[in-house]
UniProtKB/TrEMBL annotation:
InterPro entries: ARM-like, LRR_variant. It comes from Streptomyces griseoincarnatus. Pfam families: LRV. This is FXSXX-COOH protein. Residues 1-23 are annotated as: Disordered. It comes from the Bacteria. Gene3D superfamilies: Leucine-rich Repeat Variant.
Amino acid sequence: MSHEPPVEDPDESVRRAAAANPSLTPEALEALLADSRTAEGAAANPSLPLPRMHALLDRCLNGAATSPSGGH
């Protein structure tokens, strides 16, 4: 196997770009989705399985619908 993308790089933009690398396995993507530092890039990954993408969207949409407005 070739070198893994630099998902542990100190630079945030490098981590996000690495997490979006289409050569990552679904298992690697799951780990990256669970990490707030790389979740954005992993969610944009073209290799993300469609059912997982739908689950993420459902969670985001349901969370937005049930969260109190203006709360941070």
